[in-house]
Amino acid sequence: MRRALLALTVVVAAALPGGAALAQAEESEAARQAMEALRAAAASLEAAESAKDRVAALTETVRAYEKGLEALREGLRTASLRERAIRGVFAAQSERLARLLGVLESIEAAPEPSLLLHPSGPLGTVRAGMIVSDVTPALTREARQLRAALEEVATLRALQESAVTLLEEGLAGVQTARTELSQAMSERRDLPRRLITDDEAMANLLNSADTLESFAAGLLSAAAEDSTVPVTSDDFFAARGTLELPVLGRVIRRFDEPDAAGVRRPGWIIATRPLSLVTTPWPATVRYLGPLLDYGQVAVLEPAEGVLLVLAGLGQVFGEIGQVLPRGSPVGLMGGTALASGEEFLITSARDGGTEASESLYLELRWNGAPVDPAEWFAGAGN
User: Fold this and answer.
1) Are 286 and 299 spatial neighbours (Cβ–Cβ below 8 Å)?
2) Residue 381 backbone phi and psi in degrees, to 5
3) Which residues, at least 6 apart from 161, have a Cβ–Cβ distance to it below 8 Å?
4) Theoretical Cys-Cys bridge with 185: which of 32, 33, 318, 356, CB 3.0 to 4.6 Å?
């Protein structure tokens, strides 16, 4: 019986690290923060209607929605995994625990005269009593832990159910904000233009370029520069190692790292969600916007003289070639189709463990014509 109880303790401890109450408190707090972030994003969307700079307000709103939804998704995914782990403990240990409880209850329920007739005599009676007094307190503690785990399951399930409505509102809100942002970008006329594009030269470059490298090299001759608009190269180089990723996502393949087919690319591949907003991590001149080879929609930005930032794989691009974008300005949106409802997200999350980050942004940084490792420039990119 002691071995059975010890095994049960180990399994429960593994499934409920830190204790059920602590885990429940952490997940509840994370969920509350995510819900508050979504509510704040909804308020920002209303305020953006009357904001003087609607592009900046809507950009902030879209990013707030994306971060709030990401936090809520992560909280729900964690809650789902924890619930599954707890139920697995119950399924694996329920029969053993039931037998153990049955034995103890039969010993405790037996009348004292019957105990005196123990097959082993008085010594057996004493031993049985010692087992009961030794095991019962430990079993009581485990029962309390299991009861707390059951209560946690109920709380996690209630959290998931209550979050569906808010998740659906957030999905609708971010889509509205993206649509309004696209409209605001098409109407924007307040950005300075540092380049005057030679359309014929650009068309010839697109037709002749067979690689991203050759296209990037030819960009310098496809436009005439307006020297009255300054370029802040020194500031950009001083920011080395501190830039934020242009999209909310995770780097899944790094500089010169081979993929499953052995193909190496001199840049990063960032996994992100459909329709995620892509922004410039530094003030930059738009060198090119549009389709390129097999990269989908591509934005080529020039944050400093001699430096090109290539963002490839977008579904939609904003702005015009030659414009100078402030830091954090929207460059475009990723492709794909967003989930239609909170219920659909919960089903997808439970089935595939969060593989809904189905879009890939390719990021390449080129300095003086050669690719450089983005890890030297971007901070907090994860592993």
Assistant:
1) yes
2) -85, -10
3) none
4) 318
